[in-house]
Q: What sequence folds into this?
C-alpha cells in the first residue's frame, strides 16, 4: 500500500471517530460546559443556527429592501410608530421586522426609542447594485423552493426562473434573442458593476494601454469606467446584438462613442475582433462549463495584440477568509445550478485553464474585496 493511501485511511478513521463523538448528546453537553472546549462548542452552535436561520435572515433583508426601509431612515432616525406609518404597516408586525433587522445589524436602536440605520443597512444604502441583487433573489428563492427537485433534474434554460432570466445561458441561439429577453439581466449587470469595475481597474492600471476589448461587456459600464480612467484609451465591446444596442444607447448618452467600437456576436460561434492590447472577461467565465471556457480563452488569445494582457475578473471560490470564502462558493454553486450553466472556480483552476489555452505567464492580482471580485492577468 502506498504511503498516500495509508494517510488517507488514517484520516478517514480519525474523521469517523470525530463524527461519532460529536454526534453524541452527552459529548455535546460536556463540551458546552468544559472551560477549554466551551468557546469551540459555542462557535459551532452559532454556525449551525446561522445555517438553519439563514433563509429567515435573508427574508428580513428582502422585506427591508422591498419596503425601502433604509431610504426612509436616510434623513435620520424615526420612532417605530412613525416608521411603521410611512411603510403602511401595522405597528406590531412592523415592530417585529424592526427588531429582527436590528438583530442582524441592518437597523440600530437610537436614543429616545427611535430606530436608525445599522452599519449593514447604511452600507447597503450606499450600494444600489447590492440592493438590486437582493431584489433579484426572488427568482433564486423560487427555484430553491424545492431544492431536491432542482438537484435531481439539472435545469436547462427555460425550466427554472433563473434559466428563463439568464436567457443566453443554455439557449441554442443566444445571438437570436431580442431586447425583451436581454433587457432585465443587462440592466442588473449594469447596476451591479460599479464596485467591480473600480476594484478591477485599481488592480490593473491602464496607463500606456492603447485599446481594451470587453468581451461579454453588456451595456458598456466597465468600458466606460476604463475610458474615464485612461484618456488615451480606445475601447470595444463584444456581446450579443441586442445587448450591443443597449450599450450603444448608454455610451452615446455618455458621449463616448467617438472612442468606442461596438461588435455584436456570439463568442461561442463568432471570432472576437482583433487588435486590443487588453481583453477583459468581467463576470463572464463562471457562467459557462469548462469546454466553453477553454474555447473562449483560446479565442481571446487569438484576438489579443502582441504583448497584450487578458484579465479574468469575477467572484472565485477560495477567497481569503476561509469561512466567508466557503459561503461565497456555496452561494454560487446553487445559484449557477438554478441558472443552468457554470460553476464557481478556484483561482488555481482558472489559471490552469489559461495555461492550457496558451497563456504562458499567469498571475493573480491583489484584490481589495476578494469576496466581491478577484482578478487574474494572463499574457501569451
A:
Amino acid at each position: 500500500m502506498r504511503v498516500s493511501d495509508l494517510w488517507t485511511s488514517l484520516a478517514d478513521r480519525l474523521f469517523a471517530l470525530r463524527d461519532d463523538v460529536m454526534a453524541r448528546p452527552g459529548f455535546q453537553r460536556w463540551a458546552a460546559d468544559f472551560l477549554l472546549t466551551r468557546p469551540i462548542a459555542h462557535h459551532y452552535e452559532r454556525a449551525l443556527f446561522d445555517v438553519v436561520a439563514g433563509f429567515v435572515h435573508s427574508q428580513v433583508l428582502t422585506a427591508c429592501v422591498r419596503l425601502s426601509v433604509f431610504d426612509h431612515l436616510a434623513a435620520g432616525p424615526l420612532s417605530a410608530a412613525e416608521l411603521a406609518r410611512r411603510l403602511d404597516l401595522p405597528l406590531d408586525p412592523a415592530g417585529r421586522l424592526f427588531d429582527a433587522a436590528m438583530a442582524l445589524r441592518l437597523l440600530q436602536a437610537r436614543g429616545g426609542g427611535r430606530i436608525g440605520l445599522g452599519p449593514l443597512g447604511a452600507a447597503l444604502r450606499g450600494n444600489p447594485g447590492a440592493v438590486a441583487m437582493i431584489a433579484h433573489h426572488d427568482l433564486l428563492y423560487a427555484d430553491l423552493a424545492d431544492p431536491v427537485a432542482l438537484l435531481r433534474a439539472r435545469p436547462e434554460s427555460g425550466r427554472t426562473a433563473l434559466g428563463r432570466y439568464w436567457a443566453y445561458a443554455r439557449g441554442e441561439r443566444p445571438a437570436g434573442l431580442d431586447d425583451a429577453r436581454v433587457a432585465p439581466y443587462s440592466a442588473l449587470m449594469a447596476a451591479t458593476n460599479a464596485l467591480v469595475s473600480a476594484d478591477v481597474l485599481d488592480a490593473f492600471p491602464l496607463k500606456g494601454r492603447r485599446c481594451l476589448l470587453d468581451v461579454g461587456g453588456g451595456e458598456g459600464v466597465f468600458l466606460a469606467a476604463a475610458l474615464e480612467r485612461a484618456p488615451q484609451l480606445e475601447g470595444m465591446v463584444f456581446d450579443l446584438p441586442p445587448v450591443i444596442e443597449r450599450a450603444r444607447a448608454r455610451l452615446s448618452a455618455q458621449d463616448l462613442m467617438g472612442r468606442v467600437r461596438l461588435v455584436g456576436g456570439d463568442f461561442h460561434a463568432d471570432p472576437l475582433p482583433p487588435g486590443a492590447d487588453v481583453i477583459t472577461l468581467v463576470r463572464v467565465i463562471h457562467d459557462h462549463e469548462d469546454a466553453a471556457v477553454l474555447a473562449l480563452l483560446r479565442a481571446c488569445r487569438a484576438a489579443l495584440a502582441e504583448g497584450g494582457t487578458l484579465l479574468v475578473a469575477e467572484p472565485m471560490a477560495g477567497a481569503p477568509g476561509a469561512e466567508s470564502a466557503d459561503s461565497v462558493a456555496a452561494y454560487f454553486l446553487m445559484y449557477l445550478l438554478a441558472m443552468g450553466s457554470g460553476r464557481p472556480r478556484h483561482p488555481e483552476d482558472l489559471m490552469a485553464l489559461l495555461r492550457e489555452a496558451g497563456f504562458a505567464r499567469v498571475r493573480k492580482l491583489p484584490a481589495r474585496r476578494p469576496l466581491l471580485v478577484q482578478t487574474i492577468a494572463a499574457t501569451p
